[in-house]
Amino acid sequence: MTVEGQWKRLFPVRFRHLQGDSSFSRWDWVKFSYRPPTRDKRCESCHVYEDSITIDGHLPPDERTRLLSPLITGSAKEAMALGRTLTLIRPRNTKFVAKRKSAADLAEERAAFKLAARQTSIFDKELAELQPSPFDFRFEFDDDDGRHNYQNGDWETHAMFWRWCAEYGEAGTLSRMRAVYDDDYPRKGMVFALGNQAKRPQTWQLLGVIRLDEVTQPDLFS
Predict the structure, then answer these.
(1) Which residues contact 168 (CB under 8 A, 6 or more apart)?
(2) Residue 96: CB atoms within 10 Å
(3) Least confident stretch, 13-17, 43-47, 96-100, 183-187
(4) Which of 128, 191, 208, 214 has the fewest other C-beta atoms within 10 Å?
(5) Does the domain at residues 60-101+133-211 carry the CATH identifier 2.40.50?
(6) What are 89-104's pLDDT values in tens digits?
(7) Domain extent listing, the chain
């Protein structure tokens, strides 16, 4: 999002290839050059020139809730009615689910990575060798439009799995992930970043899981 509170969907950005001043994290401000995409007509979408990306500061924790709260809607349905293709929601009654993928599913994902790597202008060796997570991570949750079951497309969740597996093993990692997503985040404040598909605008996906404090009302009697 911009400092004015406008959504920006950045693509194609190969995060694994960003280095130095271009390698940004979730809460960094970045500058970049872009053009309107050729096929994606969603108003927030930007075709980024990857080599133009530079970090331009960091958003402090105490400013995040104030800046992001205006982007929160009650549901994807409400966001769509407002003409948005990206939104934040405050999910309720969340349940983190990890379902082991079949061997066929994993083989299909590996093949998809290899195909995507060949379709880039320069062969992406890292993408071709990327190993999919052995689990399908999902969230069950309520919002103003009812109960939902979304696949978790947040890359930080998958990075968390691989990082912790090296230290705690598979069972220990899943236990810790459930503690984060079923207890710690909901208790402290959590939002989901949702976005729709360019070719299927009615289909929304879970793009990010974000720790974000609730808005606190000032004490009128203090």
Answers:
(1) 176
(2) 22
(3) 13-17
(4) 214
(5) yes
(6) 999 999 999 999 999 9
(7) 1-59, 60-101+133-211
Peptide bond into 12 cis (omega under 30): yes
Q: How confident is the model at residue 17 (pLDDT cuts 50, 70, 90)?
A: very low
The alpha carbon of 140 is separated from its chain's Cα centroid by a whole number of angstroms, namely 16
Structure tokens at 213: 């404090």
Q: For tokens 């696949």, what's the residue?
A: 151
In the sheet that 190-196 helps form, which strands lie side by side, from edge to edge?
86-89, 190-196, 204-211
- Beta pairing class for 28-31 and 54-58: antiparallel
Q: How many C-alpha atoms does 156 have within 13 Å on its Cβ side?
A: 13
Average pLDDT over residues 68-73: 96
Distance between CA atoms of residues 115 and 117, nearest Å? 5
DSSP-derived pairing of the beta strands 86-89 and 34-35: unpaired
Structure tokens at 83: 């003409």
pLDDT digits (tens, 9 = 90+) for 113-158: 777 666 555 445 554 456 788 999 999 999 999 999 999 988 889 8
Compute the distance between CA of residue 87 and CA of residue 76 in angstroms, rounded to an integer.
Answer: 7
pLDDT at 122: 44
